[in-house]
Amino acid sequence: MVRMLSLSLAVLAALPFTAASAKLSTFQRRWTGATGDEPSLGFSIGSKSYYVPLFTAYHFSVSAGPFGTFEHYFPVTVVDVNGTASCSAVEALIEEYLTKDDVFDPTFAAGIYLQSADSISPDALSCLQSKYGTSVVFSSGASVDGLRSTANVATLSGSSVPAGPYIASFVDGKVIFAKVYLLYRDTQQAFTTPLVASADSQTYSVASVELPGFETLAIPVPSRIYYINQTTPERPLTGLRIGVKDIYDVAGIKTGCGNRAFWELYPPRTANSNPVQRLIDQGAIIVGKTKTSQFANGETATADWVDQISPFNPRGDGYQDPSSSSSGSGASMGAYSWLDHAIGSDTGGSIRNPAGVQGLYGIRPTLGAIDLTGVMPLAHSMDTAGYFARDANSFSTFGKAWYGDRFSSYPSFPKDLLVPADYWPSSALAQPIFDSFISKLQGFLGATISNTTLNQIWNATALPEVNATLTNYMNTTYPVIIGYDQYMNWTVPFYNDYKAANPGQGLPFADPVPISRWGWAVLQGGAAYDTELAKQAYFTNWTGANLLKADPTTCSNTLLLYPQSAARTTYRNAYRTAPGIPSGFSSSRISNLAGLPEIVIPLGQAPYNSTISGVQDYLPVTISVVAAKNCDYMLFDLTEKLQNAGIITSVLTGRYSYPLSS
């Protein structure tokens, strides 16, 4: 149901002081949500497009004022001014809003609600009219007597509301304020679903709103002003805009897991997954669900992605693989400055690899860092909840809030660095960047560097009955565990539900990668699965005893370093061979098989000659740092200290991770 409403400023035009400078387009009422009973508005101010969900509005009684009932909407800004509301005080707040918020626009000052003022300066109204075209002024307590000769004023009574921009209307002697959301185009095609929270923020609805674009969604984000000075120890993530990988259940929204048949089969979830609930309880704002490669299996753009289009990696020429499986979360964080964090999962590299190719901070935490109830499983012995950041300080703050008291900080950092010769050196263009960082890290820590290979350590310490090299011993551990675990615990129930709902239609479609992995692992059988679980358990114990040991002062006796990304190309327009089995053992398998924390740190960018653009472009260079079990907060503290020391920095969004030097 869509119907057009008149211009909000047409309402103000009937009042003595029309905001002549405000240029609002026509409002459009839309009906959103699964049941079609949730009204919303869409409008634009200049080049900005806005979305207003009316089902989360604030309601006030009007105890003084000349307003009647009319079905029109107009912009208003809520300001908190203690004491006397002078023009300079209100102007200072509006200028602060313009500096801190991407949603706010001076047009919203066409109406002003002085929520906490004790009195209103006599010249305030004429001054605001002159500066912002203010035509309507509301007050919650200050007297408006004697002011009606110079402005349309009214006294409101009701609950206090957060400062910031709103859309207001008058109905039956009541005033209604609704929060506004700025719409951003998802140009990287990283999201599956734009979301807006209910009034209690516990459930979500689909924001059914569109912007012109090439197969792009519109993602609504609320004003940051609503959350200024609202952060508390209990709600440390207040106001942060978060993207959520589409394997996490969000109440009121379908979970798709990258598969069309799965999305169609099941109704919207009735409860939030535990990791999402923790974000909501800590004040975070879920703005949308992001794409995952199918059932969180590793897929390469473009051929492996069948049911949906792989997100576009914003770095370099824009046509590099975003890696997987947390592809949408990684691509969105690399592209959009309006997004604060995005969460994903990491079983075999699904946070670390996208962090590498998008040049982001990322973490695969210690196994068990957070309860994964309500999250699609891949392998229970390796699944973890991770996330992305563009700055070391926010990386640490977010992680310590989300993981809570699961881990602790330590008084010192490790003094030994393991830089295994079997994983170094990297590419010729990236290696100088790695060398510079490792040298600075060594100096910062006062550390000793060892280049001993993992195979040397294994050969010297593994039990004689193992009688195999590390690579041979762990060769099929990962593919057997993920394939068999997911097929038996996730795929079989899905297939059974599908066949029950669609009799005679056979099995639902699945992409080639999960199909090949499931089929191969099932052929190996349950006995092979048990054998590989035992190997994983042995490797976990071996790692803790011989490679990365617990330390009471530094948490981990050693930090293991290996190159995560080295500005190598993986073009999304290349034709590739059929997917194979992810067998073998490499540096990236250490943390997921042993349940250890691993962070990705962006270091720089290196040039390459693009076959897409035909010019020299740049791709990220990142390093992985692995520590002993439960040393997650030590790693957070280290990244903060390194950034504060100028050894690492925050990264940009868009084509380049860092400014190009002149």
TrEMBL record:
UniProt keyword terms in alphabetical order: Signal
Pfam families listed in its UniProt record: Amidase, DUF8016
Residue span, Amidase domain: 232-403
Cleavable signal peptide: 1-20
UniProt cross-references to InterPro entries, sorted A to Z: Amidase_dom (IPR023631), Arp1_N (IPR058329), AS_sf (IPR036928)
Domain (Scytalone dehydratase-like protein Arp1 N-terminal) ranges: 71-181
SUPFAM superfamilies named among the record's database cross-references: Amidase signature (AS) enzymes
Entry keyword annotation includes Chaperone: no
Protein name, per record: Amidase signature enzyme
Organism listed in the record: Calocera cornea HHB12733
